[in-house]
Amino acid sequence: MIEIENLSKWYGDFQVLTDCSTKVAKGEVVVVCGPSGSGKSTLIKCVNGLEPAQKGSILVDGTEVTARGADLTKLRARIGMVFQHFELYPHMTVRENLCLAQQKVLDRSRDEAVAKAETLLNRVGLTQHIDKHPGALSGGQQQRVAISRALAMDPIAMLFDEPTSALDPEMINEVLDVMVELASDGMTMMVVTHEMGFARKVADRVVFMDAGAIVEDRPTEQFFSAPESDRAKDFLSKILNH
Amino acid sequence: MSDFDFAVIANNLPFLMEGLQLSLWLTFLAMMGGIVLGTLLALMRLSGILPLSLFAATYVNLIRSVPLILVIFWFYFLVPLALGRPIGNFYSALIAFTLFEAAYFSEIIRAGIQSVRKGQAQAGQASGLNYWQIQRYIVLPQAFRNMIPILVTQGIILFQDTSLVFVVSLRDFMTVSSIVARTEGRLVEMYIFAAIVYFVICFAGSLFVRRLQKAKTA
Hints:
A: alpha/beta; 10 strands; B: flat
């Protein structure tokens, strides 16, 4: 579904990604973790072309994202993305947030779009907030709306860029629960997160990054029980021993 | 004070009102045109497409480096030359004001667009919206909401600047006031009256801006 091959990216002289290669198969959940500044977010933003890469290639469902003149808008419409800071549109109600791209990109009728929005909000238990503006919701609620907004486009895969790191601790689980459910429904997911509990529970593979390179890329069980690199060991000991 | 004769105002009220109407109408039209054109210039400048942003930047810097009165003269003399026929002093003044104000509005709008978090546009992109849709539905509505007070302030300045149209012999409020002042020999009364009218309109505008700003922070 997602194939990243020898991807490199520079900001000026600074290399943010070095020769990154990994794959996410259909229905697979891959967690990307690593210390901050390791290039995780940059990598995931390359997948739908929000960040351009200078070398290497990314294939998403057969479309070459990195190719010149690639039809990125068409591709992006089929890949959902959830952001660290939600990025709901503050001037629109929850309903409009969910309907905008459905109507403008997928050409769905108003009724169709609203029906879809209602179904999805119902699934995350937020139907009663449909007429509110995002500012009136808690962080956890906003992120659940943001996930619903992405799902409204019937995506073939979902990208999560640190979906819980801007949340108060007591709200993290309500978002993770939605993501766990999504994973068990068979959604293809690439998730940048520090939530190792979530990774252990639902990830098929863990990609560990450090300094812009993919250091480990292994099945979840192996990664947690026997990390190969010192850097991954160090990272896990810091993040797990609390 | 006993020499003051404010009846001169009442006697010439229809004439004065015509002038005021022209000033307000010119302000309104130039503001609308300036905002539309200014938005286009701002989008061009931020487009990341070199020829477009270069054009917009040059335009803005050029216009902001010349006095408004010069631009009014330019269009008064140049537009008839370019079109081969006169278009009347109102339209030449309107074009001049619109093009002049567009440069100032574009800078305000550019700042407004940049005040919208980058993630907002990314969220739009990620859902497959194209550049224009993102601007139209996501970025500009938020930008304008942030900008309204500054836009109104610029509108107040514009209203005061319309008094410059006397140079192309348009009869705006300031011009008719001085005509009345001279023909009736009532300079003091008329200039006091003109000052009061400008003050009331502009001060009301400022109060409106203050209310908008309060509403925004509340």
